[in-house]
Fold each of these.
Amino acid sequence: MTTLLQPIEGIRPRSSKSAVPQRTSPQIRRRNRKDGLLFWALILPNLVAIVVFGYYPTVYNFVLSFTDWDFVQPAPVVVGFENYVELFQSGSMLMDALRNTAIFVLVAVIGTLFGGMAIGALLAQRLRFSGLVRTIAFAPHMLPGAAIGVLWLFMFDPNYGLSRWLFSMFGMESPSWTTTSDFSLWSITIAYAWQRLGFVAIIYYTAILDLPKDIYEAAALDGARGWGLFRYTTLPLLSPVTFFLTITGIIAAAQTFDIIATLTNGGPGTSSTTLPWMIYDQAFVDFNIGTSAATATVMFALLLVVTLVQTKYASKQVHYS
Amino acid sequence: MSLTLDRKDESAAASRTATPPEGPPGARNLSGAHGGGRTRRRRGPRRPLPAAMALYVLIAATFALFAVPLYWLFSSALKPEHEIYTYPLTWVPSALEWSNFSEAWTSAPFGAFLQNSIITTVVGTGLEIGVALLSAYAFAFVYFRGKMLVFALMVGSLMLPGHITLLVNYITISNLGWLNTYQGLILPGIGSAFAMFLIYQQMRQVPEELVDAAKMDGAGHLRRMSTVVIPICRPMILTATLIVLITKWNDFVWPLIVTSTSDMRTLPIGLMFLRSQEGYDAWGPVMAGTVIVAAPMLLVFFIAQRRIIGGITAGAIKG
């Protein structure tokens, strides 16, 4: 989750600085060997689970992406780059999925950044009831995506949902959000943004409360106030948090599945098909294992780029302290 | 400022003088992962009335943005059928209709869903946290050359998106004959880099003298772990447990592909099938089902929100 994408700095082996003499005596060596065994025994359950259900599948998925299989044939048939060639032809499902994923991720991330920063700044004003608003804003982040999807499905209902009420206030008719291809991608974007917005707001809120006071005192002496103070003081000071939220936001949004599965099933047609939905759809609905594996590899490569950008720049973040 | 101050006013006054009037609020009143004190209500600087009113309008709008959909969920689950399907909308149900819940419960095996969700979540969380504790202790306190390489390998698994492991894990579980079983649901999720990392960081804060003292008393590693390290790290372990618990309860795609019969489905999957089974128009029971899926985590969140929010936000702010 969020914590994990932070740079892992200063992983210092703790006991190495405790007494490990230069010249290892037989006793120490025996102790170390015993510790080594204990180390592996303690690590083993976690390590096995991570290797068997994390690294091995990643590697084998890559192998499968060069094959053709439908779960029924006895074994995957090697077809080389065929899956990738088909995926990257224009008009293919992957092209739709890439475009939809890009739109969904961009709109969701940018929308929640702006909205979350505004709400975070508002909550930091220490008004009455802001504690209550903080709690209620964060609550959707705790809910199962399936519940969010079904709830919004009801609210998007053009006949009985809140959407009809909202649109009728402006004398308009509610669109059929989830069942027309013009709106399906927007329906998942809105529902997803609603789930994530409170989380982003709380992160900004906490960051704003942590801002150094002396800089504000200096800025106040220089006569900065209002928008200028925010634009030239708060915004730059928040840039590490914004960077962090952008990266984790991209990674989280790009992997969203449950809201899509409950709201639109990737449809109508491919209008709300994103990469995760396509991976699922190809493997477990159409049984095109090779295509699914190749799509997963494409998605992995894209997310890896984002993660590498994070690890490269995370250490160079603007530091405030 | 009045001269006679009670305790609460005193601290509020102190914070008011300590904070520059136009600067950002001073002390964070959202406590971090270490527990911390309760939120003290503090008022900001006095504002001109129009500005204050504008802020309150904004905060009311923010409240509505999140509260209205949640209210809609609960009120629809309790509305009599005709009030769901009439327009203009009914905001307050004329009567509380609990039959939506019984209908949801009987039209789908919600009892089984609930049981499966509880078993997979509780057992899965227990195993993941146990596994995380053991490895976190090993990384923090057991000497082994090259352990940081293993550490990097394990934490590096966080970069693997869930969707790339999906297909092969399905094949693995299928080859083991574990499709549609509890072990198939639970075991692929017990490897932990996230909880391990969180707990490891806390363990590194444990004063070495305490552990050494236990060692002097002749306590072995397992004894030191259970009597010294784990009690000290309990707050972080609890936070990690809650976060893992919520993640497992909300999990969707893995239970979806690994279960095939309705008696093995978990609540989120059962909810999806309830929706497609009831069709688009049975919103009362479907919302009741949604409440059954959502309410336990809402309850956990409202009880332990400080700890959960603290745990989730801690890593984001402190670089």
Amino acid sequence: MGLLEEKLKSGEFVVTAEMAPPKGIDMTHFKECAKAVKGRVAGVNVTDFQSAVVRVSSLGAAVILLEEGLEPIMQITGRDRNRIAIQGELLAAGALGIKNVLALTGDHPMFGDQPGAKPVYDCDSVNILMIASKLMEGQDWAGNQLNKAPEFFLGASVTPLFDPLEAQIIKMKKKMQAGAKFFQTQAVYDIEVLRKFREATKDLNAKVLVGVIPLKSPGMANYMNKNVPGIHVPDALIERLKGAENKVKEGLKIAAEFINQVKEEKLCDGVHIMAIGAEENVPILLDMCNL
Amino acid sequence: MVITEHKPFEEILEMLKDSQSIFITGCSLCATSCFTGGEAQVLEMKEKLEKEGKTVTGYAILDPSCNKLQVRATLKKQKEAVDAADAILCMACGDGAQTVAAVVDDKPVFPANNTMFIGEIERVGHFVEACKACGQCELGWTAGICPITKCAKGLMNGPCGGSKNGKCEVNPENDCAWVLIYERLEKLGKLDKMLELKPPKDHSKAYNPRKIVVKK
């Protein structure tokens, strides 16, 4: 059993962080950020061509994290691979010792740096989970025997701010049925959104890590409000940032207050920090909330 | 219906640069409805080509351009004009152009249109994509809304996280197919259909080229 699974099962408040592999083969900064959170997080998500942008692959970066002594959560999307490639990637992950896999559908190529790419989407997030579960039973999707089955702790994502929320929850239930044991959410800023989401999902036996993206500026908040589905930064927080002398520090303070509130109200099983290019701030944020 | 769009005229001229005399074919069905290959557009094309110094030896509105026997019969009636041409310019869909090319196999056949999608006429001149011809129709459990065509990712198990205010992340002018499916299934009291785990779709029925024979 991996660290993430162990910690979630023990009921401890779990912290995971997200790291995007670099564009190019210099892994120095990636490794430095990994070292800075080593021992402080249960797992590190490695994004899979995040925003449909070409980078080092998630499998490659996950192996580098393993070598650095951290536990990767390998994200895998259905955007770029059909079911043959997905199974091969998962088998490679299993053979290399990767324990956690987070299945995602994936942003459309039009958002990335190769907008003319042919999207695949042979499998959606639910299908990837179904396929991974089948591999864990020792068979490929077509029913052929594997010489050894991989063991994964499977996860998926969920967006608490979705209208209609019931449609998201239906999909969340399907992900659980397909094998997802934990969820990481899109970033939440309004505690009320999280309260509503937890109330609506309280009967599901799902481990949920709420997403936190520390704000860096009012501009970033406005950009996300306009462009990122499922994220809404309330006006009051944007005003607070505007008034702050050190905006990055204020953003971290806002994130710390949110995390503490989540802990206090026991709204989630943990927190998933997505620093988006400012991974060096993750240890600072963890210090601020004594995690 | 097969929806087509005109290629830019410059692209057509580039294809025709080694051809001096041209025979133009249009189509009586889809391309006429799309205003890309009806008689009016064919005559317009004739005029434009002549302005560029080309000779148009004749034209035919094929009825329709995808019916091989019809195409053969119609072009036979205009044999002289066809024979006099260096090339055929086909104002139909890609299928129509290929049918013409199969009939007139000793001359280059150039497409004047880009074939866009199978869709419906919302109103005159407004077309929306409706069917991907996937070979395994899913409409029976999706309240009549196609997730393969109407969802930009062709998802089978519900909305992705990218839907915002019921609109698609890829093009906010489009409704999120899965929000529509959810709402209609709820209205029909069939939300349980959305809870069914759908495996990866069987794409083997879409391996191309496909062929169907219904009459021996």
